[in-house]
From TrEMBL:
The keyword tRNA-binding does not apply. This is Iron chelate uptake ABC transporter family permease subunit. CDD domains: TM_ABC_iron-siderophores_like. Belongs to the binding-protein-dependent transport system permease family. FecCD subfamily. SUPFAM superfamilies: ABC transporter involved in vitamin B12 uptake, BtuC (SSF81345). Keywords: Cell membrane, Membrane, Transmembrane, Transmembrane helix, Transport. GO terms for molecular function: transmembrane transporter activity. The chain crosses the membrane at residues 20-42, 75-92, 104-123, 130-150, 162-182, 202-223, 251-280, 292-314, 320-338.
Length: 346
């Protein structure tokens, strides 16, 4: 049987396995398209098939057609944000070799949110693009801070130390955020709804604002796949094989920070997507990041769209923000990971 040579750190993979992975990725793509159509068709208002097709063709003559037209950018936005969170979580787990790594658990989401709040409350930010840059800056500073704290002491940046440093940072930054917001009643209401994390109210203008940052993050992340495979072997062995460990880790982390920061600026901190998706994808394709990253992007997009649809259905005629739905799903998943797996390197 013919074999394909995998990158450093993975075993040779048979053509049958490659075909299985390719077919699985295609199936995920078809499933994602089905979820997109479900998101357009299902909501707090029931619509007829004729209204769906009319809205997809650009007509908004009736209330039902207008409702469907509003769901189209919301669906696209949810897919982009879900893919960004799934990819960023996978990269953070690969860079830190920590199965508990996630933008929320490591405090990166909270750092991005705190930066936005400080810019809004203290510096009077009003331009939309400044929110994105500020969130990315906050995410980057927080990631460096957590990794530095987790690296102190004997043993360096172990998974347990990183998780503890991230949890402590997240709690501290959440308190700082509340302290900044409390005296500002003029922005408190809008911030609370944003802090929950949701994709409602998405527009094509908002998508165009964050799209360049997301695309840059996607490209950098996917180009880091082979480097992440090398890092999985350990720093010493990766360096012995000719890999620039610091550059590889920094490049991959940059992609994750761009994705996480842009997503947080656009829709607020949405947790647990970056934790669940990588673990589920590893069950399907293993630890080869050449496959794991595309799977994570498709799975993250599908998961967030599905969570958004569930949030619209279970609270009719109102709806639950997608951040609440992912928290309900992700919290038990996090407990399961802690109970069933040893918190060690990937």
């Amino acid at each position: 049987m013919s074999t394909a040579t995998n990158p450093v750190g993975t075993r040779p993979t048979s053509g049958r396995v490659q075909l299985f992975r390719t077919g699985g990725l295609a199936l995920l793509g078809v499933t994602l398209l089905g979820l997109c159509f479900l998101s357009v068709a299902v909501g707090t208002r029931s619509v007829a098939w004729s209204d769906i097709w009319a809205a997809l063709s650009g007509q908004t003559e009736t209330i039902a057609q207008a409702a469907v037209a509003v769901r189209i950018p919301r669906t696209i936005f949810a897919a982009l944000v879900g893919a960004a969170l799934g990819l960023s979580g996978t990269i953070m787990q690969g860079v830190t070799r920590n199965p508990l790594a996630d933008p929320g658990i490591l405090g990166v989401n909270t750092g991005a949110a705190l930066a936005v709040v400080i810019g809004l409350a203290w510096f009077g930010m009003t331009m939309a693009h400044t929110f994105v840059w500020t969130a990315i800056l906050g995410a980057g500073v927080t990631a460096v801070f957590v990794y530095t704290i987790g690296s102190l002491g004997r043993g360096g940046a172990t998974p347990l130390k990183l998780a503890l440093a991230g949890a402590a940072t997240s709690v501290a930054f959440s308190c700082f955020t509340i302290a900044v917001i409390l005296p500002r009643n003029d922005i408190a209401g809008g911030f609370r709804s944003w802090q929950i994390g949701g994709v409602g109210g998405a527009t094509f203008d908002g998508i165009r604002l964050v799209l360049p940052f997301l695309l840059a993050g996607f490209v950098i992340s996917l180009l880091s796949a082979r480097k992440l495979n090398s890092l999985a072997l350990g720093d010493d062995l990766a360096a012995g094989l000719g890999e620039n460990v610091a550059l590889a880790r920094g490049m991959a982390a940059l992609g994750a920070i761009l994705l996480c920061g842009a997503a947080t600026a656009a829709c607020g901190p949405i947790g647990f997507v970056g934790l669940m998706v990588p673990h589920l994808c590893r069950l399907l394709v293993g630890v080869d990041h050449r496959w794991l990253l595309p799977y994570a992007a498709f799975s993250g997009a599908g998961l967030l769209i599905l969570a958004d649809v569930v949030g619209r259905i279970i609270a009719r005629p109102s709806e639950l923000a997608v951040g609440i739905v992912t928290a309900f799903i992700g919290a038990p998943f996090f407990i399961w990971i802690v109970r069933r797996q040893r918190v060690r390197e990937l």
